[in-house]
Amino acid sequence: MTACGLDFGTSNTTLGLNGPNGPRLARLEGTADTLPSAIFFPWTGTPLVGRAAMAAYVGGEQGRLMRALKSVLGTSLIEETTPVGRRRLGFKGVIGEFLAEVKARGEAETEGALSAVVLGRPVHFVDGDADGDKRAEETLGSIARDIGFTALSFQFEPIAASLDYERQVAGEELALIADIGGGTSDFSIVRIDRGHQNRADRASDILANEGVRIGGTDFDRHLSLAVVMPLLGHGSPLKRKGLAMPAALYHDLATWSAINRLYDGRTARSIRELERAAARPELVSRLARAVEEERGHGLALDVEAAKIRVAEDGATVLDLAVLEAGLSVGISHDDLIAHTGLLAERIAGRIASCLTAAGLKAEAIDALFLTGGSTRLAHVRAAICACVPQARVIEGDTFGSVGTGLAIEAARRYGG
């Protein structure tokens, strides 16, 4: 039985494999061991995934781009369908097509079938909804079986990251694992000891798990709503006193998993009616163009890229010429903090709950292990580090630690 570890992420996906030299990540797209969790359905031809999917969309090819698919697990959206050309596809089937391609690429590298898998999962797929959380895990498990896995199990993503970190340590320590991904932020407090790696049961080493459904896509959404959407009429008044543009349109346009809702024709017509009723019709005209030309995913990509540039360089200019010649908006690091600072505080707030659940004070934590793309945001990182100020900060593989840890767990559970 050939086993693997599958980290299906909101933003990126990895596949962990085992070999004679230990765990490694499969090359899923060229030489890259990460695959953006995106799929593009051209009007004709074979679906594309990952960077190729986004390149086709950005390049103007006609079709439907879908990203952040993981975020529909545990929600009512998983039962809905979305138009793809002249077809309608269910979200469960869309996720299945994406993960089947990931599995096939891993099998091409191993030159054999992958029959067993340990699937990564967040501590909470859905906040405050035990039934929704259970449904999400069951749905993901069902999809894994449908694409050919005959044995499967789950592991919390931060626990998987701790298994990757454990390979680096010399002795015993208490580690807080912070996995801040695209859709969720997850924390585990784990007793790390290299000598424990081969134990069949590590339950006593896992002291606490906590999580919240906030991740990088939420930072993108808040930044978009605050900086970009007002240029498209968000918050602007209608001519009729006391009424404003419907906020739901802008929230959908700023949310990866909801953008496709706008592309049904009826929404475009209703926006044109709102344009005539708007006190600032020139703004609503930009919204109409974004929807009619299906620019929503492109805008979301641009906002994400702008967020990253601000995190790295301190400021950027977001070019919006696709909506109107010469249109742009500047974004500073202060803007990023102003519009997403509360998200960072909410993420860090879960650490206190995790420490309480473990029965520990902050000073008991020896190491803080950071993984996940959103740990690159300075204010997120600072908020987390402030919760355990005495801990040694360890940089994990931003996108690969979870997948590597899942491969380690797969070898333990299924023998390789």
UniProtKB/TrEMBL annotation:
InterPro entries: ATPase_NBD, Hsp_70_fam, YegD-like. The keyword Secreted does not apply. GO terms for molecular function: ATP binding; ATP-dependent protein folding chaperone. Keywords: ATP-binding, Nucleotide-binding. This is Chaperone protein. It comes from Xanthobacter flavus.
